[in-house]
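User: Continuing from earlier, I have the next pair ready.

Assistant: Great, send them over.

User: Here they are, in order.

Assistant: Folding the first of the pair now:
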Amino acid sequence: MTQQLSMNLATLRNGSSFAQMIDDCLRHGVTAISPWRDQVAAVGLAEAASIVKANGLRVTGLCRGGMFPAETPEGRQANIDDNRRAIDEAAALGADCLVLVVGGLPGSSRDLPGARQMVADGIGAILPHARASGVPLAIEPLHPMYAADRACVNTIDQALDIAAQLGDGVGVAIDVYHVWWDPNLRAAIARAGREGRIYAHHICDWLVPTTDMLLDRGMMGDGVIDLPAIRAMIEAAGYHGPQEVEIFSRDNWWKRPGDEVVRVCVERLHSVC
């Protein structure tokens, strides 16, 4: 059953090193991970790739590329260049995909359609390099509360529209925290499956109350998201990859030992997911 779980290493941001996080995962039989670029940079790309290879790990994604909109052409080009570097890192790690958190409104702009066009243009600019590198690009729609500053793509359908415009090699990362509320969720997931564009499935839970919109995600089973129902939709759409646990929890899970966090994630995978 642990083969059905991937640990997004954001869940283990308790000060552990990259190697320590891997040890915590392996101790509980978790052999799939999704690191963040800063965590890879801290240990060095070559060393991170060596650790992945030596332990036979599957890298279900690298977090993150994106953040395409900018106020100036020079800023947009700098973002494109950084995304090309992220593609190289994902390729070196053998990642299943590069997850894209696409970015919000640049500067003081109020032009949401314009920001979304910058996103489409930016992904289009890096797509040839991604294809040549064998790295699929997974757009992660974020909850609308992040539309201004983090992601102007807020539904699976919006992400799929961009992917359809750009063609092969662009899909979606479906994070339950961001899409559970969508009244069109079932149809959108089915569409993503028909188009062969589901690249990742992220899980956590939505707490009531939530004390911080970014850093107070819940452990699966502690909130209100119907995780089995969404999992059933995703599997019915044809995706059977690992469920990737991604929990930002500054005041709870990030304060706990990694061994405990991974143990609870495995238990909750069995009991509530």
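And the other member of the pair:
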Amino acid sequence: MHIGLIGLGRMGGNMRARLRAAGIEVTGYDPNPEASDVADLDALVAALPSTKIVWVMVPAGEVTESVITGLAGHLRAGDLVIDGGNTRYHDDLRRARELGARGIRYVDAGVSGGIWGKDVGYGLMVGGEDEAITELMPVFDALRPDGPREEGFVHAGPVGAGHYAKMIHNGVEYGIMQAYAEGYEILAARPDLVPDVSKVFQAWQRGTVVRSWLLELLIKALNSDPRLHEIQGYVADSGEGRWTVKEAVDLAVPAPVISAALFARFDSRQEDSPAMKAVAALRQQFGGHAVRAAEEQ
């Protein structure tokens, strides 16, 4: 199988490596010539078989819109585009209609795994027609973690369902991270009783009901910087948390934990708090997201 991959940054480059290791032929294009396999989009499309499959892995929003619009001009009926970024599902529905009018198929793929996915695999939530998903299963199986398929991959539904599921996944992630961070701050506030918070968290990794990979990553961050003095408690949000809260409001579904976690991120931009330092450290650990050094103002 041979696919094109546009976007070879923090996640795309690692995905290319994992696909190739599984025997999938990948031709990648990136504006950075040092990362790219080909000089331009024309060369990428020319390198692919007659039925072209192209995975787009670039930042959501205007960049994805521009890339898919440009790519569509090079494709024909029967070709297939996969958007693996964190696109809002409304955009998936529109793009599927626009591409479908030209016979071009469209699949949306929510991808979780951050900078660790190359080695441990990516959690995948995809949306699209059954035939397209079946055709792409060798790619999905190469990217997902080892073990039962249903524990690392889901065909969530029609176009839009993949990114919708990923949106809610990220909203849940906000809440979990915030709970760990607040627990950290409370523990760290009593050094007379708990001189080493990291050791307490380490003891939660086995047997407790709160054990998780995010907990392991927080321990990793604390082992490197026990009091998180090296970073500010400034935490960005990339959109999915806001979209999840808006969806909850539109559906009249109570979501107090996710909402509070989102608002805590807003608060982090006004005041440097130990809890938000922990959230910032977690985002850096699992996704390689940028943090602000403590001395930056």
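Worth noting for the second one:
The two ends are 50 Å apart (CA to CA). The chain has a mean pLDDT of 95.
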